[in-house]
Amino acid sequence: MQQPPQQDEMIQFPPQVANQIARPDMGTIVRQMSAYTVGHKNPSDMSGRAFWRWRIANSDVADDDWFDSSTWTFVRSDRTITQLPEGREVLIAGRNHGYSCRCCGGTNYNDVVVLLPDRAGIQHIWSYPKNVFPQVSRHAAVHIPSLNGR
Questions:
Q1: What element of type H or E holds 20?
Q2: Are the C-beta atoms of residues 143 and 83 closer than 8 Å to each other?
């Protein structure tokens, strides 16, 4: 039996949050749009990347015609979303099928995004070197209170 195609999922933010994060200027987009950007240390803080913040908060409207498989996106399948006790959400990696290149059928990511409670904003965006956190298509994540102090 053939598996149904994977569906890439968008993360929805309240409109007042999404509207606070403005689309960056074209120069910033061009400098920060590569899907192949990975961290250089463990972890690399990417929270200052205006393009990534905008794509996370506005993933439902970020699909301009010129974005392709080489463009960093937050519309993904196979990501994990772990809710922490205080309400924050940790979103880990994932795979994008919609912007897939012909040779590999998709783009895998190795970033970690922490959202504030009620998706009131983005707290952290981290990326990792490939030798620390390889870009894989499937993984699992779970919050273990005894290991996390709660």
A1: none
A2: yes
